[in-house]
Amino acid sequence: MPWPSRKRDKEAVADKEESDAKIAKTEEKASDKQEEEKSAKPPAGKSTSGWKNWKKKAPESGGEESKITYCHWLLKSEPESRLEKGVDVKFSIDDLKAQPNQTTCWDGVRNYQARNFLRSMKLGQQAFFYHSNCKEPGIVAIVEIVKEAYPDHTQFDKKHLYYDSTSKKENPKWSMVDVQFVRMTKRFIPLSEIKVHHLEHKAKGGPLKNMMLFAKQRLSVQPLTQEEFDFVLSLEE
């Protein structure tokens, strides 16, 4: 398993292109934590990869977030070296590809909402691997969930960067999943390009109008609807 943990929400690093890029890297406030604990797990669906006919699919629901079906994901990780408490937290797509069987545990998440999303992931679902907190953030690859949520071992390791003294083995607070590299996207899909479509869809309607990448910029584990995944994937062509 990779050391140290590079996948996390605790630092809540905003992408440099966003307006809150200089927000301090701290855990969510108590009020956010309470809200996140109450949040329901999003239902998961079957992962598919087709995108060309996304406009023919059923229109987006106008209901609450709890009614939205999430079946894909976006996972943020830092491709550039950055020391946190003396430990380099870098973990790029090349680092993932270098792991045995190109597989790693997605450990170190210390945000309740992100943890709940991890626990909602289903075997075989796909996620975008997103380079964050770097010169040009964006989507670089697709990964697959190859093991569903199980206790994150780093929470019990006193020497680990993300040790949590309040978590007990009989009732672990934090979970992780295993992900495996599937393929690189046909081209790098920058945040700036996705944002252009998000703003257009927000004004005129479209699949990216409520994309969590812009609604909750600091969350490093994010759900995607089928329509959002398909549209973003279509941008690689």
Give a written overview of the molecule.
It contains six helices and eight strands. The chain has helices at 30-38, 93-97, 112-120, 191-204, 212-215, 226-234, and strands spanning 70-77, 83-84, 87-88, 103-105, 126-131, 138-151, 175-190, 221-225. It has a six-stranded mixed sheet. A two-stranded antiparallel sheet has the order 2-3. A hairpin with a 6-residue loop joins strand 5 and strand 6.
Content of β-strand: 15-25%
Residue stretches low in confidence (pLDDT < 50, at least 5 long) are 10-64
Number of strands: 8
Outline, from the CA principal axes?
globular
Q: How is the main sheet built?
A: 6 strands, mixed
Per DSSP, the total helix count is 6
Overall pLDDT level: 82
What Rg do the Cα atoms give?
A: 17 Å
Distance between the ends: 34 Å
Helix share, percent: 10-25%
Order of helices and strands: HEEEHEHEEEHHEH
Widest sheet, order of strands: 4-7-6-5-1-8
**Secondary-structure class:** alpha+beta
